[in-house]
Amino acid sequence: MTGENNNSLENAEVLLCVTGGIACYKSADLASKLSRSGAGVTVAMTDAAGRFITPLTFGTLTGREVYTSLWQEGENYQPQHLSLTERADLMIVAPATADIIAKMTVGIADDLVSALALSAWEACEILIAPAMNTRMWLAHPTRDNVQKLTERGVHIIGPNEGRLACGTTGIGRMAEPDEILAAAEMLLKKS
Ligand SMILES: Cc1cc2nc3c(=O)[nH]c(=O)nc-3n(C[C@H](O)[C@H](O)[C@H](O)COP(=O)(O)O)c2cc1C
Fold first, then answer.
1. Pocket of ligand 1, candidates 24, 45, 70, 99: which has the most ligand atoms within 8 Å of its Cβ, to mutate?
2. Can you identify the CATH homologous superfamily of domain 13-130+176-190?
3. Where are the domains of the chain?
């Protein structure tokens, strides 16, 4: 079965960035699956993500320090927003909010995750798993942003159709952790 200690990501360094949506709970499963596949997994999260899930969960699942602030002092005073992407083979943003997608499109870097996303462009592959309410996903700004990111080489998985946390049914569910894991395996095989 995918991700069950199959070592498919042995020696890979994955930077998992978590932004603020209900689908954060699925990111814990993703972090666990990436780790069990042999990857070294470092998690960075936004303030909004911290409203949904705690760093303790990711730290326990990955066995690594979790990064939550641009102002956290790094090892040897290396700025984390540069060093974390420098050593990553792949950056995954899951869930990716409408907000981080917009920031990534224009290059806003006003917190740790958006600064990491900007510094990742020239450092590693980028895979994002959008998750949001259907109307937010279909909104013109989001559609334009996603198109631009795709054209520039960012890999996008999902969102899927189905029941959403807001109680409606439609497109907007984050891709399942197994799907994201499979996409990560494919990207890292190629690079
Ligand atoms: C209960 C709740 C659920 C939310 N779910 C989502 C979501 O699934 N997708 C999304 O794009 N924004 C969602 N938001 C809005 C974001 O949390 C908000 O835009 C926030 O500023 C995102 O910050 P970040 O991108 O820095 O994590 C939600 C907000 C609340 C209060």
1. 99
2. Flavin prenyltransferase-like (3.40.50.1950)
3. 13-130+176-190
Alpha-carbon dihedral angle through residues 117, 118, 120, 121, given to the nearest 10 degrees: 120
pLDDT tens by residue, 5-27: 678 899 999 999 999 999 999 99
Task: Compute, in angstroms, the gap from residue 132 CA to the centroid of ligand 1.
Answer: 8
CB of 149 sitting under 6 A from ligand 1: no
| Alpha carbons 67 and 78: distance in angstroms, whole number | 13
Q: How much is the pTM?
A: 0.95
141 half-sphere exposure, CB direction, 13 A CA radius: 11
Ligand 1 centroid vs 77 CA: distance in angstroms? 31
What are the φ and ψ backbone dihedral angles of 161, each rounded to 5 degrees?
-90, 155
Distance 134 CA to ligand 1 centre (A): 13
